[in-house]
Amino acid sequence: MIFSKTAIITGASKGIGQSIAELFANEGYNVLINFNNSEKSALDLYYKLKNKGLSVRIFKADVSKRNEVDSMINFCIEEFNSIDVLINNSGISQSKLFTDITDEDLDNMINVNLKSVFYCTQAALKYMLPKKKGKIINISSIWGIVGSSCEVHYSATKAGIIGLTKSLAKELGPSNIQVNSVAPGVIQTEMLSPYNEDELNVLKENTPLMRLGTPYDIANCVLFLASHNADFITGQIISPNGGFVI
């Protein structure tokens, strides 16, 4: 297998990020697996893919901190000599009444969900712009489109990602760099752990396709946007949500 293109996936140790990393590696990409706290999961993924002969590296970085992002990007260039696709997937969620959200809650949400996208994208563009080529894919959420009760700070950051995506696509279009966002619906990840079986069934019933999404549903959408088949798509918000939001 010839490895030609390189993808960085932030928050790739679990859930959607893990599925994206697996899919891209299996499709022949050089993949940099980023993680921060979930070291065991990240290492398990790394060795799983490496033992299959796939081209993967792993790097610990808190992507809400610019200096750690810069170190990660430099490592990627040292290892693979290019950055063709940046997937800004890292994120956190929190359910809380708006009146109970603390300054710390708000700052943490903005830093992890929104600032990380700024930092990673700015760092990657140092290498994409001279080549006039690249794909940036930002993972938002349906709640960034329609808003979610008791998740105002989360919804605000995900809406911010959508605004960033649209604005940056206009700015980078002349440089032949495509910027898009994937806004997943209700997906079977650890973020659903607070929900009981009855609540999950209600979510399924409210989804026209009558099921919850899987991380691979999202990963396949991201893979399409990273491919040459999506070269004329930029500034778009694609929402794989089973019809939950139409």
From TrEMBL:
InterPro entries linked: NAD(P)-bd_dom_sf, Sc_DH/Rdtase_CS, SDR, SDR_fam
A GO molecular-function annotation: oxidoreductase activity
GO-annotated biological processes: monocarboxylic acid metabolic process
Keyword entries, A-Z: Oxidoreductase
A Pfam entry, by short name: adh_short_C2
Superkingdom to which the source organism belongs: Bacteria
Keyword Oxidoreductase: yes
Membrane spanning stretches: none
Family statement drawn from the similarity comment of this UniProt entry: Belongs to the short-chain dehydrogenases/reductases (SDR) family.
Protein name: 3-oxoacyl-[acyl-carrier protein] reductase
